[in-house]
Design goal:
The structure holds two protein chains of two kinds. Helices cover 75% and strands 1% of the residues of chain A. By secondary structure, chain A is mainly alpha-helical. Chain A folds into two domains: 3-44; 69-305, MetI-like fold (Orthogonal Bundle). In chain A, helix 3 (66-109) packs across helix 10. The longest helix of chain A has 44 residues, at 66-109. By secondary structure, chain B is mainly α. Chain B has a domain at 89-309: MetI-like (MetI-like fold). In chain B, 74% of the residues lie in helices and 1% in strands. Chain B contains 14 helices and two strands. Chain B has helices at 2-47, 60-63, 70-77, 79-112, 116-127, 134-145, 151-158, 173-199, 202-210, 215-240, 247-252, 261-264, 267-276, 281-309, and strands at residues 53-54, 65-66. Chain B has a two-stranded antiparallel sheet with strand order 1-2. In chain B, helix 5 (116-127) runs antiparallel to helix 8 (173-199). The radius of gyration of chain B is 27 Å and the shape is flat. The chains are: A mainly alpha, B mainly alpha. Chains A and B meet through helix 1, helix 2, helix 3, helix 4 and helix 5 of A and helix 1, helix 4, helix 5, helix 6 and helix 7 of B.
């Protein structure tokens, strides 16, 4: 064991030279993750002229907040409405999804429950076989009549067997068994045990799965693409996706781009910096939230990985 | 005698009542989940009969006429379908290996960082891409690749060369998609591995050091064997999804560009495009059913194989 600038290396730690190399590698990898995201923020504050002349750049010649003012001038109503939809969807979906899944998981975690095995398989089978996109689409549209409604964005992604199995594993950890026994002796019913004992001690699991669910809802655009025609039901991510798609349509069809309709579309499309501004407002909330939850979901993920 | 029998009957009744006191509330708690899975998982499973029918919207799924295997015959003759199968399987084979090796390497490396606070900062940054939606990723990719104002285009023109219209050049995309996939998922997937690695007792490594094992030997003979169960489970889950592809990655990131189809058209993209653009419910439902059935068979078979090798590792 040698001394290096007052740092005493443990017997299991790597040598100083390796440590330097490893840190350099990790700095590069971290920058590779950070810089593309930073690029979005920087270009959203870049003057449109700079983008046209020099392209997207991390070091723009001229800064500007015009992208945000133009974007809000052009489509404030649509943005606000889409954001409102996204938020309602995220909050309602996360809450209802957690409620359904935790209740189900609690029941199948209880050893005394007669239908435990059957209902575990009932959930588990949905992981093995799925009807697929087309059958789901037709059932949702033709049988339930959910096309072009808010419900089709909310319901289908609400609960998943995988998350239920993870929650069940969490709930049936050694400690809970004796807690439940004690509560039963005190005369507590199942609902009370679930709400007042199990949920409070399962915060890491709830935070993990709640975060997954809310991110899934917050980023949802595919269901809007698939089911929704009504502008009032757009989500913020779909708004962004649509913009990207229209740009590609124009690139793909030069003839269309030159036509009157194409010119009109081109005129209505946000310019490059405005597009970046829209991107910024669609991703910032998640980027602000996840570091706070990091501690929880690292714990949650590691526990969930233990065989269920 | 009489009283004894009565007691046993009473006991049974009491037992029954006790059971009901547990079962009824628990059953009520599972009810929303039961209804949910029925409506959004089991009904679509029943809906897969569409693949054997000629779907007419006003007649509904069950009222439409039977076609037998006609839809599948169309599917087999469709060259785009085979292209999609080939692409899906190729990408998934590559992702199966890279999706296990990269996160594992990252976790092993991260675990060796001496300063744990710095390691946490690295980890926060490395998992960040996971929290960015694919729509946003497609915007970033566009900013880098676009022929007009993309970073690469300006770099090339700065060197006096012609910019490349990447969205028209299919040759580059397998590599781009591989980079995007790895960029987005590696940091996040490494969390599970890192959790296991930090759980390995130091005693093993100490003993190895005394025996003169190098760091590399320690990784190969201690760390990786400890990760094996997790690798196996994650691999089964990936193999079970072998016929599925990430729609966001293959549709949104290349912006569904027509010229890129030969390398971006996976089964999910094909199903979507057939359903939505050509409105061909019959063909797309046949493809979707084949996809589901293949996935089901794969999960069951791989699990059986693992069960034969080491029954502790199998999932059911």
């Amino acid at each position: 064991m040698k001394l290096f600038k007052g740092y005493k290396r443990g017997p299991l730690e790597i040598s100083d030279a390796s440590s330097v190399v490893l840190n350099i590698i990790f700095v590069i990898l971290s920058l590779a993750c950070l810089l593309p995201v930073l690029l979005v923020y920087i270009t959203s504050f870049t003057a449109e002229r700079s983008i046209i002349e020099n392209g997207f750049s991390l070091f723009p010649e001229q800064w500007s907040i015009k992208a945000y003012t133009t974007m809000f001038d052009q489509s404030l109503d649509t943005i606000l409405n889409s954001y409102k939809n996204t938020l309602i969807l995220t909050v309602a979906g996360t809450f209802l999804g957690l409620l359904i899944m935790t209740m189900y998981a609690y029941a199948i975690a209880r050893k005394e429950f007669t239908f435990r095995k059957g209902l575990t398989f009932y959930a588990y089978f949905t992981m093995l076989f799925s009807g697929g996109l087309v059958a789901s689409y037709i059932v949702n549209c033709n049988v339930y009549g959910l096309r072009d409604t808010f419900w089709v964005l909310l319901f289908p992604g609400m609960a998943g067997a995988y998350n239920i199995i993870v929650l069940r594993t969490f709930f049936s950890n050694a400690g809970t068994e004796s807690l439940i026994e004690a509560a039963k002796i005190d005369g507590a019913g199942e609902f009370r045990i679930y709400a007042q004992i199990i949920l409070p001690i399962s915060k890491p699991a709830l935070a993990t799965i709640g975060l997954f669910l809310s991110i899934a809802y917050f980023s949802s655009w595919f269901n809007v693409l698939l089911y929704i025609d009504d502008r009032n039901l757009w989500t913020i991510q779909y708004m962004l996706q649509r913009t990207m798609r229209e740009i590609q349509t124009l690139v793909d069809n030069p003839d269309f781009a030159a036509s009157e309709e194409g010119m009109l579309l081109l005129y209505e499309l946000p310019n490059e910096s405005a597009k970046m501004a829209l991107t910024v407002i669609s991703m910032t909330p998640v980027l602000l939230f996840y570091p706070y939850f990091q501690k929880y979901f690292i714990k949650g993920l590691t526990l969930g990985a233990v065989k269920g | 005698m009489q009283s004894a029998r009565k007691t046993s009957k009473e006991l049974r009744n009491m037992n029954l009542r006790r059971r009901a006191r547990t079962d009824i509330p628990l059953l009520l708690m599972t009810l929303p989940g039961i209804v949910f899975f029925f409506l959004f998982n089991y009904m679509p499973m029943a809906g897969t009969v569409l693949a054997f029918k000629y779907f007419i919207p006003n007649r509904g799924i069950f009222g439409s006429e039977w076609l037998g295997f006609k839809n599948f015959q169309f599917m087999i003759k469709n060259s785009y379908f085979w292209m999609a199968v080939k692409n899906t399987l190729t990408y998934n084979s590559v992702f199966l290996v890279s999706g296990i090796v990269f996160p594992m390497m990252l976790a092993i490396g991260l675990n060796e960082i001496r300063n744990k606070k710095v390691a946490r900062v690295y980890q926060s940054l490395l998992i960040m891409p996971h929290f960015i939606s694919y729509v946003v990723v497609s915007v970033i990719v566009f900013a880098i690749l676009s022929a007009d104002s993309g970073i690469i285009a300006h770099f090339l023109t700065g060197m006096g060369r012609e910019p490349i219209a990447f969205y028209n050049e299919q040759g580059y995309w397998p590599i781009f998609l591989f980079i995007v996939y790895s960029w987005k998922g590696t940091g996040y997937s490494s969390i599970i591995y890192l959790g296991t690695i930090t759980g390995i007792s130091d005693e093993y490594y100490e003993a190895a050091v005394i025996d003169g094992a190098s760091k590399w030997q320690q990784i190969v003979h201690i760390t990786i064997p400890f990760l094996k169960p997790m690798i196996v489970i994650l691999a089964i889950m990936k193999v079970g999804n072998f016929f599925h592809s990430n729609f966001d990655l293959f549709y949104q990131v290349p912006l569904n560009s027509g010229l890129l189809q030969p390398v971006t058209n996976t089964i999910d993209v094909f199903v979507y495009n057939t359903l939505r653009d050509s409105n061909d419910v019959s063909l797309s439902s046949a493809v979707a059913l084949v996809q589901s059935v293949c996935g089901f068979v794969l999960v069951v078979v791989t699990n059986k194989i693992i069960d034969l090798i080491d029954s502790d590792l199998s999932m059911f």
